[in-house]
Sequence to fold (100 residues):
Amino acid sequence: MAKKSVIQRNINRLKLINKYSAQREAIKNEIKRTSKVEKKISLYSNISRLPRDSSKVRLRSRCWVTGRGRSVYKNFGLSRHMFRFMASNGLLPGVVKSSW
Fold:
């Protein structure tokens, strides 16, 4: 189980991403449309003034059961440990252990 503070930090990042996503996208679209270098530099400085945690890159995908941040399957939202446990106990519909 991940520490509660780490899970909460990720939740706070998600809130910041939702709050600043429209503003960040507007600036990025304006950068794409602009051809003047001076204007692009000023727009990049506008992006850098936004909170760092409002960037989507800083969000960590975590297991929804344990909060583990590594080896998380995106399709299920589970870490490899919980995926194996739940699949072997038949808790994931449609998942069958392969054998050949």
Notes: The chain has three helices and two strands.
